[in-house]
Amino acid sequence: MSILEQARTWFKGDGIPQPIAGLMDPIDADHLADELRLTVRGQENGAHEQPASGPSSPDAVEEEIIGTIMAEWSLQREHLIAMLKAYRDRLAELSAVSEIAQLRLSATAAIVKFRQRKQEARGDLARLRNEYIEARDELAAFRIKHGLSRPARDPSGRWTTIGLLVVMIALESVMNGLFFAKGSERGLIGGVGTAFGISLVNVLFCFFLGLFPAHFMNWRGWFVRILATLLTIAGLAAILFVHLFAGTSS
């Protein structure tokens, strides 16, 4: 946080600037006593009845205590003076006019970038709008041309259809296998094999017959509808012929 922000926070009352760790900390008397071994030295001096009672100058222990405290005081004083000088120099370099000018310059640059992005977004939106209008008009023309009134419907998944085909082939193979087993030399196994081949051809042929020719019987163009109808009738006739042939051969 800069000096200006700290001062602004202080005047607003949002918080109090935190002191720097280690600066102007109170002296730890217990730690100082342990460091100078005052307890042990006091017991030794007391055993020798030192210092002498009465007014006198401080002894060696007292002088050491005073010197340690004064050294700590001088160190903290130098740190505080150095910190205040650094803050003074930073405040002297700080200019409200230059800061305001910098903020205005940043705001102007942000506005220019925003307007540039705004123009780019307008161009993208105009392109997307034109694509949407063209697709909508194309769909409307297609529906009018082919006489369509309902919306488009997506076909179902092919996995369901394939699964249904497998089930139908299996069921038809079992049912026809019992019928062909009577005329087969290999009994039930031969009948099921023959029935499986006929069922596979039957189901797959009917599937593709309904997927392509029969599907185009609802086409708007008359030529396509006639051709699809003829192919569908021919396919049904072929299926009927295959069943008659299978029944006759059995």
| Multimeric state | single chain
Largest sheet: none
Tally the helices: what do you get?
8
Q: What string gives the helices and strands in order? A: HHHHHHHH
How would the global form be characterised?
elongated
Tally of DSSP β-strands:
0
Mean pLDDT figure: 77
Structural class label: mainly alpha
* Helix content percent band: over 70%
What Rg is obtained from the alpha carbons, in whole angstroms?
51 Å
Please state roughly what percent of the residues sit in beta strands, choosing from under 5%, 5-15%, 15-25%, 25-35%, 35-45% or over 45%: under 5%
Low-confidence stretches: 13-17
Describe this structure in words.
The radius of gyration is 51 Å and the shape is elongated. Helix 7 runs antiparallel to helix 8 (222-249). The protein has helices at 3-12, 29-36, 38-47, 60-93, 96-146, 158-180, 187-211, 222-249. The protein is built from eight helices and no strands. Residues 13-17 have low confidence and may be disordered. 76% of the residues lie in helices and 0% in strands. The protein is an all-alpha fold. The chain starts with a helix and ends with a helix. The longest helix has 51 residues, at 96-146.
SSE topology sketch:
Blueprint: H1 3-12, H2 29-36, H3 38-47, H4 60-93, H5 96-146, H6 158-180, H7 187-211, H8 222-249
Helix pairs in contact: 6-7, 7-8
Describe the structure concisely.
76% of the residues lie in helices and 0% in strands.
